[in-house]
């Protein structure tokens, strides 16, 4: 009752294939897939190893899980805030810096963090930027795709990046 279609109801829609690899011939979509593959190589690594890293660097084992909690909390804000700003600044204009910031923060901040405070700062920055990447990838696909191909392209992208 609350959803309307942009496609006129009188037109007969032909069924589209559930997987169409010809979408990879679209250079914009192909570049988005390739870039997403590179980001996905390390996107969830901090979520898996941040607690053991904190413990190995002298953080009390009973409180080291708070670093993961901070990372997840910041990720929630990172998934919500970009939706507000993406319409004003552009989806790709936010996606690219967020992906870069996630990688750079891991290389610079995580590798040099030794104290709980430094790890919390890293977790907040990484959670915010990685959450933004996760939230912005689907609107970017929708921006460069025909409305009838959006669902198939989202599935294709996530299928491809599931391997790295």
CATH class: Mainly Alpha
Number of domains: 1
**Low-pLDDT sequence parts:** none
Question: What is the 3D shape?
Answer: elongated
SSE string, helix = H, strand = E?
HHHHHH
Q: What's the CATH topology name?
A: Growth Hormone, Chain: A
Provide the structure class.
Answer: mainly alpha
What's the Cα radius of gyration?
19 Å
Instruction: Give the terminus-to-terminus CA distance.
Output: 40 Å
Query: If helices are DSSP runs of H or I spanning 4 or more residues, what is the number of helices?
Result: 6
* Helical content band: 55-70%
Total strand segments: 0
Largest sheet: none
CATH superfamily: MFS general substrate transporter like domains
Mean pLDDT: 90
Estimated share of beta-strand residues: under 5%
Q: What's the CATH architecture?
A: Up-down Bundle
Subcellular location: Membrane
InterPro entries: MFS_dom, MFS_trans_sf, Proton-linked_MCT
Membrane topology: Multi-pass membrane protein
Protein name: Major facilitator superfamily (MFS) profile domain-containing protein
Main attributes of the structure:
164 residues, 6 helices, transmembrane transporter activity, transmembrane, Growth Hormone, Chain: A
Give an overview in words.
- By secondary structure, the protein is an all-alpha fold.
- The protein has a single domain, classed as Up-down Bundle (Growth Hormone, Chain: A).
- The chain is 70% helix and 0% strand.
- The chain contains six helices and no strands.
- The chain has helices spanning 27-40, 45-56, 65-89, 91-112, 116-144, 150-161.
- Helix 1 packs parallel to helix 6 (150-161).
- The protein is elongated.
- The termini are far apart.
- One of its GO terms (cellular component) is membrane.
- Keywords: Membrane, Transmembrane, Transmembrane helix.
- This is Major facilitator superfamily (MFS) profile domain-containing protein.
- It is found in: Membrane.
- InterPro entries: MFS_dom (IPR020846), MFS_trans_sf (IPR036259), Proton-linked_MCT (IPR050327).
């Amino acid at each position: 009752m609350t959803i309307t279609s942009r496609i006129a109801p009188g037109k007969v829609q032909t069924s589209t294939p559930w997987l169409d690899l010809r979408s990879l011939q679209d250079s914009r979509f192909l570049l988005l897939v390739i870039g997403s593959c590179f980001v996905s190589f390390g996107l969830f690594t901090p979520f898996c190893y941040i607690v053991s890293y904190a413990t190995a660097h002298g953080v009390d084992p009973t409180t080291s899980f708070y670093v993961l909690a901070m990372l997840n909390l910041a990720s929630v804000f990172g998934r919500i805030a970009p939706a507000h700003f993406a319409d004003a600044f552009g989806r790709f204009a936010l996606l690219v810096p967020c992906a870069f910031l996630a990688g750079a923060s891991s290389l610079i901040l995580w590798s040099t963090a030794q104290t709980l405070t430094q790890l919390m700062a890293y977790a907040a920055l990484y959670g915010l930027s990685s959450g933004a990447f996760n939230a912005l990838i689907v609107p970017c696909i929708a921006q460069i795709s025909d409305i009838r191909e959006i669902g198939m392209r989202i599935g294709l992208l996530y299928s491809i990046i599931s391997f790295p």
